[in-house]
Amino acid sequence: MIQRSKVDKQRTRKLDRRNVLLGLGGLYGAANLIGVANEPFSLGAPVPPPDLSSCSSSSLPDGSPVPFTCCLPLPKDLSNIPTYKLPNVSKVTIRPSAHNVTREYITKYSTAIQKMKSLDKDDPLNFMQQANIHCAYCNTGYKELGFPGVPLQVHFSCLFFPFHRWYLYFFERILGSLIGDDTFALPFWNYDSQVGMQLPSLYNVVNSPLYDPNRNQNHFPPNVVNLGFTTIDLNASD
């Protein structure tokens, strides 16, 4: 038993948890990996939050630096960040399809986005500050706590789904608070249906707060959404 314990500890030291992610392959994929590698178990240590004061320049997918800082405004006391408490829910909110939203909804959504963009640029709730959250966490702005040479990788890891679910949750809550509607829900893009295979029209109105001039015009109608987009345009159409 002593010898086996010693061997297991040696194996554990050699096992990099980042190489044993329970991803889209599911439980069986992880089990097969363990079986093939002849390992007694795999580690599931959670990735701790980064040191917020250690934010550095972020990188684009090609490795070049982001031409602006994505670092977020810091709270006054980093040692005393309160734990978020979920609010009481009195009504279930339903996210509408972006292709079927009403004029009333578009007005409400546009107003919320405009108010968010109009907040002080240093306000953590400001539109760009919220965008910077994704930039900093998903474009190597932070390093893993305790591993200064290892970028915190939200994409291509087990953090992808929980991070983005919370990200959208808080984005939605901010918008609702700005228009005094705690039942506000973001639209979803049903791009798997035939009618939803083009960019929703509410994002293609030039004078709307929902419009972004930086969007690639090749992705606008009549072109359909390229679900396999890898920076190469296929110019697919109906």
Explain what the structure shows.
With 238 residues, this protein is mainly α. It folds into three domains: 1-45, no CATH class; 48-72 and 95-188, no CATH class; 196-238, no CATH class. It is built from five helices and two strands; from the N terminus they run H-H-H-H-E-E-H. The protein has helices at residues 2-14, 26-37, 103-118, 127-138, 160-178; strands spanning 143-144, 147-151. It has a two-stranded antiparallel sheet. A hairpin with a 2-residue loop joins strand 1 and strand 2 (147-151). It is globular and about 50 Å long.
Order of helices and strands: HHHHEEH
How many DSSP helices? 5
Label the structural class.
mainly alpha
Query: What's the mean pLDDT score?
Result: 80
Number of domains: 3
Q: What are the low-pLDDT stretches, counting only 5+ consecutive residues below 50?
A: 1-42
Note the overall shape: globular
**End-to-end CA span:** 66 Å
The profile of the biggest β sheet is: 2 strands, antiparallel
Which sequence of strands runs across the widest sheet? 1-2
